Amino acid sequence: MADPTDDRVTCAVLIIGDEILSGRTQDTNLRDIARYLGVLGVDLAEARTVPDVMAEIVAALNALRARYDYVITTGGIGPTHDDITADAVAQAFGVELYEHPDILAMMSARWGGELNAARRRMARVPVGGELVKNPVQGPPGFTIGNVFTLAGVPQIMRGMLEDVGPRMRGGRPTVSRTVRVEGSGEGVIAEPLEAVARAHPDMSLGSYPFFGPEGYGSNLVLRGRDPAQLGEVVAELMAALKATGIANVREVESA
């Protein structure tokens, strides 16, 4: 796990499901999690997608939870046979699963009568785990160690995130600024961009080209935690670009 004395707080996302890898379902959770964590000052450092295969999930989860402060998993906690995330998390931590009485009571109140085996699957939580509230619908997620296990349905996942954030150790939020270069391709801007990036290794500088009927160019996005330093680097980059003869350079509002 990352050094707790380090100002940087890190998180990885483990996306679980054959439907994502097959292309039948488009994942939007990664985008939403990244934006949510950014506000908290938590860096999304890695994302992996694995199939509904026990060994694959366990191996990925163990690797990620050892390397980062937090791991968020999405998907695989529903009622069907291929929803095996709870089993995999329990195996990774070396504990058993049990049917949480609060979840059973919640589902009984909602659906009434005796719960069938499929619904009871959604009440299983690893021993030592705690519940993650689900304000949308259905059973909650759970957390154990530094792992948060959330639903794969985007609307439900976003609701669960609201109970995850307060449990995380936040860092300094990342701020970003964007320099737009029009009429010049990445081959032209690569050298000054690399020079500035090398001079400021603690910052993130990325180039995102665009093409369209109105022209082409790149949006150069700079990210850092110190707004004053970020402003200085923006000015340095714009000066470096203009020094190479690139005239159409301006700062725009970050997306």
Overview of the structural elements:
The protein is α/β, with parallel strands linked by helices and 255 residues long. The protein folds into two domains: 9-167, MoaB/Mog-like domain (Molybdenum Cofactor Biosythetic Enzyme, Chain A), CATH 3.40.980; 175-252, EIF_2_alpha (Alpha-Beta Plaits, 2-Layer Sandwich), CATH 3.30.70.1130. 38% of the residues lie in helices and 27% in strands. The strands form three sheets. A six-stranded mixed beta sheet has the order 2-1-3-8-7-6, with helices on both faces. Strands 10-11-9-12 form a four-stranded antiparallel beta sheet, with helices on one face. It is elongated.
Question: Considering the protein shown, what is the CATH homologous superfamily of the largest domain?
Answer: MoaB/Mog-like domain
Given this structure, which CATH class of the largest domain is correct?
Alpha Beta
Number of domains: 2
Judging from the principal axes of the Cα atoms, what is the shape?
elongated
* DSSP helical segment count: 9
Specify the CATH architecture of the largest domain. 3-Layer(aba) Sandwich
Low-confidence stretches: none
Sheet/helix structural class:
alpha/beta
Strand order of the biggest β-sheet: 2-1-3-8-7-6
Query: What is the H/E order?
Result: EHHEHEHEHHEEEEHEHEEHE
Describe the structure in brief:
This protein has 255 residues and is α/β, with parallel strands linked by helices. The chain has helices spanning 18-21, 29-40, 54-67, 85-93, 101-111, 117-121, 154-164, 186-199, 227-243; strands spanning 9-16, 42-50, 70-74, 97-99, 124-126, 130-132, 141-144, 147-150, 175-182, 204-212, 215-224, 249-252.
